[in-house]
Amino acid sequence: xxxxxxxxxxxxxxxxxxxxxxxxxxxxxxxxxxxxxxxxxxxxxxxxxxxxxxxxxxxxxxxxxxxxxxxxxxxxxxxxxxxxxxxxxxx
Length: 91
Prior knowledge:
Radius of gyration: 16 Å
Low-confidence stretches: 12-16
Helix content: 10-25%
Mean pLDDT: 78
Number of helices: 1
Strand order of the largest sheet: 4-5-6-7
Order of helices and strands: HEEEEEEEE
Number of domains: 1
């Protein structure tokens, strides 16, 4: 009985850190959540967990490749802080 309960609990915990989105050509893909603090490069790009994230116009987009079609990342999966490389954070 205990083993049967562990599977759904573990699945909920694991999937709470990801989003499931549609994949081009059909099917679904699991996209990992961004870390709490993210530092983007000069192109407002950040790579994490096999995905590419783009920070533009105060919103986050993601794609499975740097030049691929981008989808909007839900606000629940945005980082708490976003910094640019070389930005002075001693405020």
